[in-house]
Amino acid sequence: MRKGINLLIALCLLALPSCTALKSHGLAPVKYGYTDKEGRMAIAYQFDGADDFSDGLARVNLGNWGYINKSGKYVINPQFDFADNFYEGLARVKINHKYGYIDKEGKIVINPTFDEGYSFSDGLARVEVGRQTGYINKMGKIVINPQFDTGDAFSWGLARVRIGRIWGFIDKSGKIAINPQFDECDSFAEDLARVKVGGRWGFIDRTGEIVINPQFNFAWNFSEGLAVIEIDRRIGYVDKAGKIVINPQFDEGRKFTEGLAPIKISRQWGFVNKAGKIVINPQFDEADSFAGGLARVRIGRKWGYVDKGGKLVITPQFDNAWNFSEGLARVF
Q1: d(Cα 151, Cα 269) in Å, to the nearest integer?
Q2: In what order do the strands lie in the sheet with 132-136?
Q3: 245 vs 53, 226, 255, 257, 280, CA distance in Å?
Q4: Radius of gyration from C-alpha coordinates of the chain
Q5: Is the four-CA dihedral 212, 213, 216, 218 of positive or negative sign?
Q6: Interval 180-231: pLDDT, tens
Q7: What is the pTM of this model?
Q8: Domain locations along the chain
């Protein structure tokens, strides 16, 4: 009986959502707060769930979702079943199982009528009606009728959509701009999109022309002119001409931001520059890309932040931490 009870408890813990994550040293629910770049708690630990700041506001949860400013003051009271970050001045919210959109004063500007809704990008937002995907404008008008099996946000004027089992791209009028033909693909980033053809990844331009032949075991989107690629389980980087500029040699790697990329060698993370030179020696148990001049790193079980010289400017002290956004970072 005791084994059965223990198993039930374990399964319940695994099922808990991230917004009620458990502290590593016990079963007490965590509380989220925000730190500044000096390591001072700018907003005290108090929220059951929280997200990064976007457009000056952050979504937080205390039973229901609402929004705070950088002083930690509620500007939109907790009232939503779900709420997302603000993008292009609007945020999606869930009320009574339907999605709509609010402005930064908390006013509902697009009534909750959609089965699913996503953030605005390039002036349009993806919505679902039944099991079909379409797009609305900021007035809430459907401008591309729900007709796709799924889709994604517009980026660089195009949005990826799936019809059946294959992916293509549409323009903002809803017209097919790149015929569905890819096993998988991603949104455009820096004018190129990664696509999967015949089990290999390459890149296309916005006309649909393949500009880097599918040849990689895996590839990530371009960031600062370089893309992470995988060949034979080793990670390297290519430029937009498809030239390998940093030879595949790392166990893992992440995108370049602010001129540096985190890489993993023999279970330790460090950072390289765009010449492939290691500028911060591998020494961390985990590391993420730079944001706002700092990168989050983990030593043992605690997270802190380093600057571009590799100096720990915020001592590892958090059970978890996220990248800085608009001067503050979410932590617990």
Answers
A1: 34
A2: 116-121, 124-129, 132-136, 142-148
A3: 34, 9, 14, 16, 19
A4: 22
A5: positive
A6: 999 999 999 999 999 999 999 999 999 999 999 999 999 999 999 999 999 9
A7: 0.87
A8: 259-321
